[in-house]
Hints:
By secondary structure, the protein is of the alpha+beta class. The chain has one domain. Helices cover 22% and strands 22% of the residues. It has helices at 13-16, 78-87, 98-108, and strands at residues 8-12, 32-36, 39-43, 52-56, 61-62, 71-73. Strand 4 and strand 5 (61-62) form a beta hairpin.
Amino acid sequence: MTTMGKYCKAYPLTRFREYKGWTEKAENARKEKRVVNGKEVEVERQLTAKDPLYLQENYMVTDGVFLDENIIFDDVTSEWKDFCTHTLRFEAPVYETVHSIHKKTSSSEEKPTA
């Protein structure tokens, strides 16, 4: 079953290729549908420099928005994270849960004095 992450950001493939340790698992790219001899078939797609790939919240790169499908790059190291943060300016937002918001609100409310 596919997993949708909480956050991902699209970049053209050329941006990822700037990283010195970049390697591609191009065989994991999404397939294209084409009609061959009247039948719809899936064929391998060649990644091009302008193709958007998705940097996921876990720093893996995918060919699509799903966290666990079509993984193109998964060699997540501290150097890779540094490249994403400083060069790509990638920063996943921190989401507050309803519970933590309620906790902040209730602890900041003044209590009446008798």
